[in-house]
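Hey,

The postdoc asked me to send both predictions to you directly instead of through the lab channel. I've kept everything plain text so nothing gets mangled by the mail client. Protein one:
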Amino acid sequence: MRNLLFLVSFFLGSQGYACICMPVRILQRATEADFIATAKILEVTRDEANDRYHSVKIEIIDIYKGRRVDELKADFGTGSCAMYTPENTSWLIFAWKNGNGDLSFGYCAGAEQLDKVHKSSRHTAEQLEKAQTNYRRSIRKKLELLLYLKKRNFQLKNKYGLKTYFLNDCIRDIRGYQIESRPFAFYELEIDTSLAVTNIKALKQFGVNELDSKVLNCVKNDLVLQARKNEKSIPKPTKIILGLFYYEGNDRYKSFISQNIH
């Protein structure tokens, strides 16, 4: 029996009403997902048993996490959150096992069309070109990150769903640095049951001494952790990976560091 991926219906609608998705950082998606891949949509056919669903054959371009699959079920749904995957388009997919043990993914789970072309009669050619450039840059950064994690076999775990935040704009104030070819940095954090960071291990840094020193200082002194439901403790000590990403500057703004890929 062919492996099946069930596609949950979350996407931007065509009626002017946006499907609202909660923001999730790329490293959090990579940590929690059971399957990550880029894939080409080969064929889309209506499911005879359920008009809402479509059978979708896919061809894996590259797989970053999990096992290979060759077919999926797409919930095309209705309204502003309907999912649409045209044939002969390519996608970045983050998938999770649902209650039945089947892998599922959708727009709000991070699915993005790799070969998307920005078109609009309400925007100038210059605005569309800028949007296209920014979109492609974002996709490229995500794929570079996923490939790096795959090659180095990073064990991304976050058992208690901890989230990280910086106080006092510490990271935001680190601007204007130039780096060559290390657009991201990773730190392993050891955390006790009271959500205090007891040890920090630099797994990969940006490669500029002053920049790395300032970033590490922020991690040591300004990082705070939040557990699910704002709980004040966790059952056992744990480890998580903190990811930080570099954005080069231009004529309008200086380079900066972020916890997400925009």
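Protein two:
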Amino acid sequence: MINKNLRKKLGIVCLALAMTGLYACGKTDDSKKDETTKTVTEAASTEAASEEETTTEEEETGITQEQYDSMTEDDLLTALGITDPENVSEEQYLALVKTLKFVPIIDDDRIDSLYIENNITKKALSKVRKGLPSVDTILEDIIKDENPQVRGYAYDSMFSFFGVKEKSVSIAKENLENETNDYVLKAAVEALSNEMARDPYVAEFIFKMSKHENPKIRYKASMAIGNSWSIGVDGTVERIIEMMDDENHDVRKMACYESGNLHDEKVIDRLVEILNDPNEKPDLKGKCVSGLVTLWYDYPFHKHFSERAYRETINYWSKTPRDNDNPDWASLTLINNKSDTSYDDWRAQATYFSEDEIYNVFVDIIKDENANWLARQGIIKAIHTHCSAKKFAELKTVVDGLTDSKGDLIRKEYENEASK
């Protein structure tokens, strides 16, 4: 099938040949020939200009924005000549990825924006997933594309559970120096987030992005720095502590939350300072507790044993007077679950952990009518998880004796947990 652009070019050539042939038969004089030549030239020039205007969005794909917006994923595959979902050529794969340029980038006030929504290109890619060539065959083309959505796909496609291929990291390094688009930089941070320990350049790049002017990029960088894959990288602990004081509240929360993954007690001082500051927001304090709990409980791995982090966690949960925000109710559910395979070994080594202490602190919260009712309800599971059957049975007397308006909800939760 001849595409629209090719038909236009052929039409111009045919027009020129036809008119030239007509006057070559002696049916005109030189002046008319000159006039005709001028007319043909002008027509071709006008058509070419029109073609240039209309093909900028069609080039390489043969599809316009208007057409794309009205398509389904099946329409898109058909338009690109992809008829066998298990046999897609490199050219077809490249053309399909390039249609991502028609998808708008979402960039709003949310810290996790700067993304493209689900779209027909992604649906089409999913539909022919088994027939796609390796992304390696088109990676060097799409990572240099003029459209950020396409370059972003290049980085998105690098990431895997098993890590980024060395060749892909090399290609990324060649192109990141000149990359300025925030959407693409965010995608690159996400793709390379587990590679800081493997490549000094990547570590330098992530550190640089942690100071980027866009908080959405700093947010992703904090996740990469405060990542168990980044343990041992020089500067990660110091930088995650600095990011706990970022000017953006969401970045601060993520830095506090991720800090425990580095399993370094140097983060504790700043976490505790935030917990002890009455002017700090409760949701930030909740993330600080998450960081601490990772240092001493580390579910589901149970591989770390910071007694100091444990003590600071208990101190926070024990503080009075309590209210709806203090302690943060979600932080009290962080030890609700345990691993079936590693918990017993952890319990044997975590000599600081006291069943009686956990029971007494949590019962005190359950009895406190001023505490958040979700907290009072949620920690019933934690008691069941960590305390003896005898202790859990004693808890029934406590919940049966509650007289406030949330007593029935808490008793119901106890009955649900007891039935398990």
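Summary for protein two, as requested: Confidence is low (pLDDT under 50) at residues 1-55.

Thanks,
C.
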